[in-house]
Amino acid sequence: MRLIPLIALLALSTGTGAVDKVQSLNIKLGLWEVATTVAANTEIPIPAGLLEKLTPEQRARVEERIKAKSSDAPKVIRRKYCLTKKQLNRGPTFSPDWESCNHVILASTSNRLEVRFECASKPQEAKSAGTLQIEAIDPENVKGCVRRAISRDRPADSSWIFTAKWTHPICGPAK
Length: 175
Description:
Elements: H1 3-15, E1 30-40, H2 50-53, H3 56-70, E2 75-83, H4 85-90, E3 102-108, E4 112-120, E5 127-138, E6 141-151, E7 156-168
Antiparallel strand pairs: 1-2, 1-7, 3-4, 4-5, 5-6, 6-7
């Protein structure tokens, strides 16, 4: 009977593949400016059966738009990110919309972080999984990349490359 908790603890400690002790990146807390370049690697996912319901003319227009969209140059998105002590200790993502994702830290040093993640939106909708890598160039500059596979009716892959620059120790509307 005493072995059950020990076996459960051993199984949890070896089965996750996570780093035993997370080491925080050597970066400053506060307000960061993040520039993210997003590039889709495959076509835009379209629910199964949708194209079959369209007239030949509608289908041709949709396929033409998809083709034009996939040939677009990567887009750069600029935004601000507030890095707190709690986020730094858990492994910062430099993305506010990852709070609902499950994270497993694969590697953690003072200047490098690698995270595996799995996210799910509403039930029956898209699920995604991938890796996040962050490198602290110095305490005020980081760079990183995200590789993500999205599963829905049709799979799609995307990659993001980002840079972030620390701007101020205090986050908030004044900044």
